[in-house]
Amino acid sequence: MSELRLVRLIEPDGSASGDDRYALPAPGELLEHYRALVRGRRFNEQASALVRQGRLAVYPSSHGQEACQVAAAAVLRDGDWLFPTYRDSVAAVERGVDPVEVMLLLSGDWHCGYDPMRHHVAPQATPLATQLPHAVGVAHAARLKGEDTVVLALCGDGATSEGDFHEALNFAAVFRAPVVFLVQNNKYAISVPLARQSVASSLAAKGEGYGMPSALVDGNDVAALTAVLGEAVRRAAGGDGPTLMEADTYRMDAHTNADDASRYRDDAEVTEWARRDPLVRLRAHLRAAGVLDDEEERAIAESAEQTAAYLRTGLSADSEPDPAELFAHVYAGPAPHLAAQAELLAAELTAEVHS
Description:
Layout: H1 27-52, H2 66-74, E1 81-83, H3 89-94, H4 99-107, H5 116-119, H6 131-144, E2 151-156, H7 163-174, E3 179-185, E4 188-189, E5 192-193, H8 206-210, E6 214-218, H9 222-237, E7 243-248, H10 267-274, H11 278-288, H12 294-316, H13 336-354
Parallel strand pairs: 1-2, 2-3, 3-7, 6-7
Antiparallel strand pairs: 4-5
Helix pairs in contact: 1-2, 1-11, 1-12, 2-9, 4-12, 6-7
């Protein structure tokens, strides 16, 4: 088995890589991606601050992985589906979900604060890899109905150690489901390094065992990600089945605010990956190309700050919990046993008020 060659279109210093396998996206498209990267970075910073302020219970930041988030949302068409993990809040926002609604899961208000059907964004999955079979199911159903819907399923390197990962890829390959798997290899499953999870030459190489095309991409290069992901989406929409992609990236922040990353990685490693920052890389490229100037930078920063302010305001408002919501949206229609439980709770609450 030949080792996969990393796809990179923009070097860490911002220069073009000269990789002739894919065309570099147009300057205007790259500028839009840069706007999204800045917006995503500011979103991550604001959400992390809200944890410290007690407005969020926890936040798994995608700081350093924003290129994967932006690319995942950018390549999908209106009718396509995104299946995110708990770390993919930025991807959900870029897909059009209200930022405050995305964060309701992590504030403890709702399991899923947005309408998945409206946005074609599945609920963010906290258990590793459980969303992957669901993604394949949606893709397979679309194929059976003759639709050209494509499903993009996100996961991390830790998810590839789960049985759901194997089952999802095997089913997708056998039934040629129109699904693209994007593994964001950020090097750690909480504190477990990749070397303790797999000895394969790459996670993307696992695609050969399932009989599907695979690609290894620089996960901090949004140009390479959109080029390769875009091709995989077009391939799936055309009826040519699934693709496995591995994005080589890094989680700059700790796993969550409850994690002490210094216990399992050193500062030198973090510093090295900081030099490959996706936002800094694209900024250097656009500056050198004359596409980005100081005035445009200020406008982009101001727009990102407006998103942060909206998130801050929305999550700083106290909400009045409604106990009846425990029984809403559990099933498509009313279930007798839940109706009985709802009546019992209502009676108990009424009695408590009058006692």
